[in-house]
Amino acid sequence: MTVLSLRWRYLGVSVAAGLLALLAAAPARSQSSGDAGDLTVMVDRAKLIKVPDRIGTLVIGNPLIVDAALQPGGNLVLTGKGYGATNLMALDRKGEVLFEKTIRVEAPRDVVFVYRGADRQSYSCAPICEPRLMLGDSDAAFKSSLEQGVARNAAAQAAAR
Description:
The protein has helices at about 5-25, 140-160, and strands spanning about 40, 45-50, 55-60, 65-70, 75-80, 85-90, 95-105, 110-115, 120-125, 130. The protein is of the alpha+beta class. About 30% of the residues lie in helices and about 40% in strands. The chain has two domains: about 40-105, Immunoglobulin-like, CATH 2.60.40; about 110-160, no CATH class. Strands 1-7-6-3 form a four-stranded mixed beta sheet, with no helix packed on it. The chain has a three-stranded antiparallel beta sheet with strand order 2-5-4, with no helix packed on it. A three-stranded antiparallel beta sheet has the order 8-9-10.
């Protein structure tokens, strides 16, 4: 083996060891990061939570981050729309606050982000990696994935007729 290839091998092992050390030192994150009143939802995914039956009004601080739909039987469906955090308040029919929660919307854990300079493209890696349309991707990657999805859906609808 040449000296140059040994240096590259050593560099690769050093980088891998450093990443493992960082991961081991990082504190474990719970599903609902923050205090007990916080909820975490993944973007493009829904979460079902039980709420009091007597809710009359839901107030969402920023509907671009999360959407909420009240269902019969005290079920609330939260859907992650964009990254960030916002609050959700539930009021009864008299206007009294029943509860308030902070909702955090994060990227799914099965997504890998690939950067080429400042341009980012997302891949869903469950179990193999394939391109995925995600907020924050470069304009070219986002547009390409979106156009392919629209064309695929149009072809499927045409075939169904």
